[in-house]
Predict the 3D structure of the following.
Amino acid sequence: MDAYDTGGGVRGGPEPAPPPEPVPPPEPAPRTGVAALSLGHQIAAAVALAVVAVAVCVHLGMVFLHVAPSNTVSKKHGSVISDWIYPEFEQNWKLFAPNPLQQNIAVQARAEVRTADGGIRTTGWYDLSARDGEAIDGNLVPSHTQQNELRRAWDFLVATHDSDNRAVGERGLLSEAYLRRIVAMRLDREGAAGAGGVVERVQVRSRTTHVQPPEWTGERSPTEPAYRELPWWELPDEETQGDPE
C-alpha cells in the first residue's frame, strides 16, 4: 500500500510522545555538626579543639616524664613536672621499676567512744582500706579519694615518723593531724559512735601481708600478716563529730 494518500500528504499515524519533563536536581542535604555553624563559630570550635589537643599532649608528656626513669629533661624541669602532677595526677609507680611493691598494706582504725549514758567502750577494728577497695571494685570511674586519700595519708605518716612511731619535725605532726582527720570522718560514716555517743580517741594500725611469689621462682615470703600499731590519738572538739555540716 502506498504510504502517501491521494492528496499528497503523509498518511496519519500515532502522535510522537512529548519530551519528558526535566527532573530538577536534588536538594543538597542540610549541613550538620560543625559544618552547620557560622564561620565565626567554626573558627571558635577549631581553636577550642586545638587547645584541648595541646592540653592532652602536654598532660601525657608530663605523666610520662613523671613515671619514667630519671633523665636530663625530668631533672631540668622537675619542679614544673611536680607542680603539674601533684596532687591530682599522682602516679605511685615508676616506668620499668626494677622492684615493684610486693605487699598489700591495709589501714585499719578503731575508736574509744563515750556512750550516751556516760560509759566508755572501744569499738572493733574497721578495715578502711577494704571499704575503699569495695567502692573501687567494678567501678569504671573510681574517685581520686577512694583510690589515694587513705593510702597517701598513711605513706605520708610512715615517711615522717621513726620506727618508734615518733613524729620527725613539723611534717610529722602535720601527717598525724591529716590521718587523724581522715579516720575521724571515716568512722563517723561507719556510725562507730552509735546513738548519742561521741568518739573521743582513735587508734590506727596497718596490716601488711606479702604477695606470694610464683612457685617457679623458688622464693618464699612470710604468710602471717605484720601489724604496725600507732598510739591512741585524742580528737579535738571540732573533730569528735566526724564530717562537718
